[in-house]
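Form 7-S
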Amino acid sequence: MKELVRPPRLAPGARVAVVAPSGPVAEERLQAGLDLLRGWDLDPFAAPHVLDVHGALPHLAGTDADRAADLQRAWCDPSVDAVICARGGYGAQRMVDLLDWEAMRAAGPKVFLGFSDSTTLHEAFAVRLGLVTLYGPVAAGLDFVKNTRAQEHLKATLFAPETVRTLTSTGTALAPGRARGVTLGGCLTLLATGYGTPHTRSGARGGLLLLEDVGERPYRVDRTLTHLLRTGWLDGVAGIALGSWAQCGPYAELRPVLADRLGGLGVPVVEELGFGHCDGALTVPFGVAAELDADTGTLTLATSALS
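Output:
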C-alpha cells in the first residue's frame, strides 16, 4: 500500500464548501458549523442542496444526482480549498458512482473531510484520486459545534498538522507489537458493504487499518468482521487501531468479539484511540505512512496529514 498525495494545509481566508452526500441536515446545526468555520478565519459556504430532503426517501439529503452535483461542483471549483461533509447518515454509496472522477482528478488536490457514511468517499478518493483525506468531525455534527477537544484537534490538523502527529489510546493493547504501514479505514460496516464495488480497494494488505462503528450490536460486529476475514480483505494487514463503538452494546461484551476476530491475525491491535462516533473525536488522516505501537498505545504519523 502506497502513501497518497497530501493536499495543502489551510490558511486564513481559505474557501470551504460544505456538502451533504448522505443524510438530511439540521439547519440550526449547519449554521452553527458555518459560524465556527468563520471564527477560524475561513470563508465557508453551503452547497445549494445541503438542506434538501428527498421527497420519497426522507433518510437522504435530496436526490442522488443533486448530492453528487454539489460535491463535484465544489471539488472542481478552483476557488475552493476544502470540501467538508455536513453529516454522515446514509447515502454516499448511492451517489458515489455518479461523480465524474476524471474531472475531479483534473481539479487537483484539496482537503476532503468527512466520517461515518463518508467512508465510501474516503475509499473513492484514495482509489480514484490517490489523495490523503481526513476522517473527523463534520460541519453540522455535535462534536464539531460543541466539543472543544474535537474542535482544537481538527483545527490543528487543518492549519498546523505537524503539531498533531501522534494519537494516544486510552485503552490497552488487544494484541501486542509494533507495525508500520499506510493508514486507511473508517466505519466497519461501510468498508464491508463497499467490498467488491467500484472505487473501493480489494483489501487492506500493507495498511494500518483504523476501524470504528455506531449502532451495531456485538453479534453484528462479529458477523461483519467474519465476512472480511472470509473474503480475505484483512489478509496482510500490518496493524489495526480501533476507535469508538458508540451504541454497539456494553463494551465489556464487544471487546471479546474484537479480540476473538482480530487477535488471530498476528498483528498489533490497539483499542480506544479516540476517533469515530465519540465525544471529542480526533481527526485522523487516511493515506499517510505511520507506526502503530500497541505496547505504548500510540499511532504516530511519519509526516503531517497535510503538506
